[in-house]
Amino acid sequence: MSLKLDFNLDNETYRHYLNGHPVVMHSHHYLALVTKLAEDLDDIGGAVILRDVVEETMWAIFEDYIQKNGLTSPLDRCNVGREYYSAFGLGKMVVTGSESGGEVRLIRSHIDEGWIMKWGPHSKPINHLTCGYIAAIFAAAFNKPVKSYKVTEAVSMAGGDAEGKFIIKLA
Amino acid sequence: MTVMRDTVVKSLAKITVQGDENGLIPEYDVLVNLLPVSLLNKFTERILAAAPADKKGTVEEGLVRAAYECGYHTGCGIITSDIFNDVVLPMVTEGEKDILRGAYAAFTAWGWAKSGIVQLKEAEKMVIRANDYYEADSVGEGLRAYMFRGLCQAFFDLTYADPYPDGMDTYVCRQTKGIETGDPYGEFVVTKK
C-alpha cells in the first residue's frame, strides 16, 4: 500500500489541506518546546494531555482515510498511520505486532532528533507525541476506539540510543 | 519597486512539503513538520483548561515561547533561503521594511495567518492585522493566538534587534483583538520589551 497524498490550498484564506484535513508547517523548535511544556506541566497531566490529543486527532484522520479507501486488512490499515508519520515529517518507523499488542522501532525521529539538536540528550524518554500516535495506529489497524492500547517508550533516541523502541499492549 | 504582496503570496503558497526517504523534512536550516491544525489547537485548549488559575499565565507564556523560538530560528532560515531570495529580494527597495512585508506575505502563503502590517514605526512599533488564522478556530476564553504572537515578536527581533542569534527577546507582542473573541480581525502590537 502507498498512502495517497492530496495537497490542497484554500485560495481565499491560504490555509493548506492534506487529504481534506487542515495542516500547518512548524519546525522542530516548536515541537521540542511544546514537548518540554508538556513535561514541565506534568503536575497537571501535561504529557498525558499531549498523548491523548495526538491519539484522538490522528485516529480520526486514519479512520477517515481507511473509510474513504475501503481498507479492511489490519496491515493496510496500520500502514496508513505508519506512512502518514513520514508524510508529516515526524520520522520513520517499523511496526510489528497483532491485535493484542506489539512493538515499534523508531528509525528516525523529528521529535527526538529535534530535541537533541536543541538541548542535547535527555535523561528520560520525551516522545509523548509518538506514544499517542502509535496508540492511534494500533486502534485504527484493529478497528478499535481510542484509548484501547497503552504505549510505553522503552528505548529513547533523545536519551542517546540509536533507535527508539515502543511497547504496545491492549489497555 | 517595493514588495508586491500578492505576487509573493501566490508564489510561496504553491510550495508543499512532505517527508523525504527518512520521513523528515530538512528545510530552512531546521527540521520542518506538517501537522493537523486541530491537533495544535486541541493541545492549547486542553492544557489551558487543565491549568489552575495561578498557572494559566505560565502556560500562555510557554505557548508563545514555543512559537517565538520556532519563528526566530526558522525565520532566519526563511529570510536567507533560496526561495525568499528568488521571490522576495528582487522586490526589496526599502530595506528592513520590505523584508518584514515579505515575511508577512510568507505567513499568509504558508497558512499561519492571512495577515499584513498596518502600522510600522521602524525598530519601535508594529501593528499587524490578521483576517484569518488557525488559532481563531480554537475553543476557549479570551484572546488566544499564542502562536501568532510568538511569530510576530520573532520577526520583529530578526528585523530590528541585534543580528541573529543575539537579538532574542528584544521586542514583545501583545494581542489586542481576536476573531476568536468576536472581533472582525485579529490585531497584534509589537513594541520594545
Question: How would you describe what is shown here?
Answer:
The complex is a heterodimer of chains A (171) and B (193). Chain A has 171 residues and is α+β, with helices and mostly antiparallel strands. Chain A has five helices and seven strands. Chain A has helices spanning 28-40, 46-68, 74-87, 110-119, 128-141; strands at 7-9, 16-18, 21-27, 91-98, 101-109, 149-155, 164-170. In chain A, strands 4-5-7-6 form a four-stranded antiparallel β-sheet. In chain A, strands 1-2-3 form a three-stranded antiparallel β-sheet. In chain A, a hairpin with a 2-residue loop joins strand 2 and strand 3 (21-27). By secondary structure, chain B is α+β, with helices and mostly antiparallel strands. Chain B has one domain (5-192): Trafficking protein particle complex subunit 3 (Muramoyl-pentapeptide Carboxypeptidase, domain 2), CATH 3.30.1380.20. In chain B, the strands form two sheets. A four-stranded antiparallel β-sheet of chain B has the order 3-4-6-5. In chain B, helix 1 (5-13) packs across helix 5 and helix 5 runs antiparallel to helix 6 (146-160). Chain B is globular, with a radius of gyration of 16 Å. Chain B starts with a helix and ends with a strand. The model of chain B has no long low-confidence stretch (mean pLDDT 93). The chains are: A alpha+beta (171), B alpha+beta (193). The interface between A and B is large, with 52 and 50 residues. Strand 3 (21-27) of chain A pairs antiparallel with strand 2 (30-36) of chain B, so a sheet runs across the interface.
